[in-house]
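Shipment paperwork, digital attachment
Item: protein structure file
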Amino acid sequence: MASVVDAERRFEFPNILISVHSPSSSASCPPPPPSSSSSSSPPSFSPSTASASSSSSSSPSGKSEVVARFSADGDAIRLRFHQGNDDVVVEFDLGSSQILALSPTESICIDNFHSNKLKRSYSRAVTMTFRTEEESQSFHQAFEQWKCAGGESGAGTYYAAVIENRVDFQDRIVVDVGAGSGILSLFAAQAGAKHVYAIEASDMVDYARQLISGNPLLEQRITVVKGKVEEVELPEKADILISEPMGTLLVNERMLESYVIARDRFLTSDGKMFPTLGRIHMAPFSDEYLYVEIANKALFWQQNNYYGVDLTPLYGSAFKGYFAQPVVDAFDPRLLVAPAVFHTLDFSRMKEEDLYEIDIPLHFVASVGTRVHGLACWFDVLFDGSSVQRWLTTAPGAPTTHWYQLRCVLSQPLYVMAGQEITGQLHLVAHNAQSYTMHLTMTTKMWGAGAEQGGVIQMSSGKMDLKEPYYRMSQPQPYAWVQDQQPHQLMQSQCEQETALLSQDVSSSGVISTQGSGP
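Attachment content:
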């Protein structure tokens, strides 16, 4: 990684006003009800000025004018805010940091750090307010791409997939779809590509040019093209498409549609796609802590005398609104109560229209008796190279990526016994906010002797907006495993699942559903 992104080849964001929040400056406030007009999902900062103002315990004025720099220090990717004579005001290790959008033009960056002096760990944050939504989007995209570049679970996997499959790239024409900072284009050039066309529609294209120009031996074989893949024209067909089109739950941000369009427009009939296919994994889960946490958010609206105002008329809407937010976090895989199933999207065969609506039937057999609080989801993608097949997984228990996992929490839990069937449907409908509305239904059936004569005895459903998740900052809880089912019995090994997948015939539509355990 250091050969491509090092301390001398860094992104800078000058003239930013920031507010640094220490642990003592945080305050607890009652949560407002979720609003469909606000955006909780991180969009993607351009080389222009951003400002931020808020109370700060670490700066007398509450504001600091700084230069923000993304850079690589060995294997670590860092975001530093420099002031004056290059003094570092605060720095974040992107491996343990998260960035959240508070509004379309305001964001907060949070990380955990350990104080050797106090021998305790704390969280700290920097608040930034951008002049335009486009600046905010560009900064978010830079943050995620540099964060991805720091770990084996992100660009490290891409790098390995490309370099280990040099035979697929040597003297070939490559198109990088949604190139962002241009890192993947540089990987392709390193692998011996004859020429790489890096297509990027946002202002990140300026950073791609900056990064690529900082690598002159590779620059001569890379052309940066600003525009949408649906509109740009290229002088030749591509042998390889490379991209990072994945969002939360694989499909959020709807970048997969552009990836498929690029395939139809630019790829030769026998060309390859990196990644080649993706799988959405799903399993029912039980998490009393999470359920109570979400339900308790609505308690604020049960007050009938809040400064003389009766808030109870909004309680029902608030309760429903909190459960309409899918939860994005990292959870303990021992919370799963049945083996996972997965739904496969074959990028090399599927049509763009297949992504407008995604219908996934659900069928599980509970391994333990417990309360089911909803459906847990994650994804993985396959780089099907000629020499080596590489998987990038976001599974619970695997190294955490910036995609985390996602859980749909039902407002009405289901009660199950070991051996009882759980059925249902997950229906995703694309919408104009570059995301999906999620319709989840889960039911339980009679179990035991005579179950075939029984019917559905419980049903619970929910409607969630993938664009408006609840980014949960807590770490996975150290749950004790008290049931008689061991984790390895609930989840097959990644290797076994990959072998099973590669041996099956994929339908001509490129979309299949498979019953099996998640990695």
